[in-house]
């Protein structure tokens, strides 16, 4: 297991649509281990493989440190797909390990049903509500090349992207000067 670097906005890889996983082999198991270790070290409640630069349809989630009514334990979602969304919505403040220090209210369906494969390749379905439903939708968005900022106003999103891009350029320039 290893803590991997989390890629940050404006990295264009965050907009890639991840590829389905066809075989659950040792490489995928190692990727999942790295996802958990990286997620816990960050710390976060969910992490998609694309956030560590791997365009595979897999993410980890663990809400055990959050106050919530769900059964808290680590989850692995391979090739997940939302198969049902409630008509009722809920607004929660979201953040993202790939967009540090930025939080915004996002409206999403309050409940979802997701089908996925577990780490043993067994087909599963899970219903989620509250923070868990938000987490699942956020991570599934990641593997589809969508960021939570795509759910906020264009004005707020454009301001954030401009600020983040400027900061990334300044950091890159500073690193070149040091070298």
Protein described:
It is a single chain. Strand 6 and strand 7 form a beta hairpin. The longest helix is centred in the C-terminal third of the chain and has 25 residues, at 154-178. The chain contains 3 helices and 7 strands, in the order αβββββββαα. It has helices spanning 26-41, 130-143, 154-178; strands at 46-48, 58-61, 75-85, 89-96, 99-109, 111-117, 123-129. The strands form 2 sheets. A 5-stranded antiparallel β-sheet has the order 1-2-3-6-7, sandwiched between helices. Strands 4-5 form a two-stranded antiparallel ribbon. The model has no long low-confidence stretch (mean pLDDT 93). Helix content is 31%, strand content 28%. The protein has a single domain, classed as Peptide Deformylase (Alpha-Beta Complex), CATH 3.90.45.10. With 179 residues, the chain is an alpha+beta fold.
Layout of secondary structure:
Layout: H1 26-41, E1 46-48, E2 58-61, E3 75-85, E4 89-96, E5 99-109, E6 111-117, E7 123-129, H2 130-143, H3 154-178
Antiparallel strand pairs: 1-2, 2-3, 3-6, 4-5, 6-7
List the defining traits of the structure above.
single chain; alpha+beta; Peptide Deformylase; two-stranded antiparallel ribbon; 3 helices; globular; 7 strands; 179 residues; five-stranded antiparallel β-sheet
